[in-house]
Design goal:
Strand content: 15-25%
Radius of gyration: 32 Å
Helix content: 25-40%
Structural class: alpha+beta
Distance between the termini: 13 Å
Shape: globular
Order of helices and strands: HHHHEEHEEHHEEEHHH
C-alpha cells in the first residue's frame, strides 16, 4: 500500500526577475556629489555588515548541525521483522527439528524436535512473565508465539517464545543492555507450554528448571526459553541459564544440561529469525 500523498514543499525563493533599477536624477542642485558618495558608502557598509552576519549565522548553523550525533541507522529488515508473526509459515518460525551443534554441556551436540505449537496470542500474563510484560507493554507488545520442543532422548522439554514488539530500533538496542534482560528482570521465569498426549503433558509452572531471555539489537523481538524435565518432576528453585551452567554446580538441573538447553536454543532461534528476515527483505526488494 502506498504511503499518504505529500505535497512537495513550495519553493522558498522568488525566482522572478526584478524590474530594472530606475535611472538616477541628473540634476546635482539638490544632490551634491559628495553627499551621494557618502550615502553609497553607508549603504555598502550596511550591506557588508549584514552579509557577514548572515554568512556567520549560516556557518554557525552548519557547525552545530555537524556536531550533533547522527541518528543510528535502522538494521536491514527491521521493519519486515515486525510482521513475521503473521507473514511467515509456522514451520519457518518453529522448525519441526532444530539442530544445536555444540549447544550442550562440554560443547555436546543437541537436536530438538517440536511437539507442541500454540496459536498466536496477545501479550498477557498467560503467555508472558510479569516483569517482561511490564517492560514490553509501553513499547507496543504486538504478539506472542510459542512452541515446545523435546531433546533427542525425550528426557527434557523446553518452551520457546517469540515476542514481537513495535519498538523502534533505538529502544530495541537498550533492551539488551546492562547485562541483558535476564539479569535486569531477575527471577522472571517464562510460562511453560504443555501438550496433552506428548512428553510435555506434565510440563507446568512447578516443573520449570532453567530459563533465558534475550532481546537481539537488530530485531524487534524478544526470544524466551524455559526448560524442564519430561518426567514431570518438580523443581523448587529454577535457575537462570548462566547460573545453571556455572562451573562446580552439582544439582540435577546443572547435570542434565537444562541451562545449556535454554540458552542454546535462544541463540539458534535468533539466527533463524535473522535468516528469515533476510529472505523476506530480499523478496520485498525483488518486487
Amino acid at each position: 500500500m502506498a504511503g499518504p500523498y505529500t505535497q512537495p514543499p513550495a519553493d522558498p525563493f522568488g525566482h522572478g526577475v526584478l524590474p530594472p533599477e530606475a535611472p538616477g536624477e541628473t540634476t546635482t542642485r539638490l544632490r551634491p556629489v559628495r553627499e551621494r558618495r557618502t550615502g553609497r558608502r553607508v549603504a555598502v557598509v550596511v550591506c557588508a555588515v549584514l552579509g557577514v552576519g548572515l554568512i556567520g549565522g549560516a556557518l554557525a548553523g552548519m557547525w552545530l548541525a555537524a556536531a550533533e550525533p547522527g541518528k543510528p541507522a535502522e538494521p536491514a529488515g527491521y521493519t519486515e521483522a515486525m510482521d513475521l508473526w503473521h507473514n511467515a509459515p509456522v514451520d519457518t518460525l518453529f522448525p519441526r527439528t532444530l539442530a544445536g551443534p555444540g549447544a550442550g554441556p562440554g560443547a555436546a551436540a543437541r537436536t530438538w524436535t517440536r511437539i507442541v505449537v500454540a496459536p498466536d496470542a496477545a501479550c498477557s500474563p498467560a503467555v508472558l512473565a510479569k516483569g517482561l510484560l511490564a517492560t514490553l507493554r509501553p513499547l507496543g507488545c504486538e504478539r506472542v508465539l510459542r512452541a515446545t520442543y523435546t531433546d533427542a532422548t525425550a528426557s527434557s522439554v523446553i518452551t520457546v517464545g517469540l515476542v514481537f514488539t513495535r519498538a523502534d530500533a533505538t529502544t530495541q538496542r537498550t533492551l539488551g543492555e546492562r547485562g541483558g534482560l535476564t539479569t535486569r528482570l531477575g527471577a522472571d521465569v517464562p510460562p511453560a507450554l504443555s501438550g496433552e498426549g506428548t512428553v510435555a503433558a506434565r510440563f507446568g509452572a512447578g516443573q520449570r528448571a532453567s530459563w533465558w531471555l534475550n532481546a537481539p539489537a537488530d530485531l524487534p523481538v524478544v526470544v524466551t526459553a524455559v526448560s524442564g524435565f519430561a518426567d514431570g518432576r518438580a523443581v523448587p528453585s529454577p535457575q537462570p541459564a548462566d547460573r545453571a551452567m556455572a562451573a562446580g554446580r552439582t544439582d540435577a538441573t546443572a547435570q542434565s544440561g537444562l541451562g545449556h538447553e535454554a540458552k542454546g536454543i535462544t541463540v539458534r532461534f535468533e539466527r533463524l529469525l535473522r535468516t528469515t528476515v533476510a529472505a523476506a527483505a530480499k523478496e520485498k526488494n525483488a518486487r
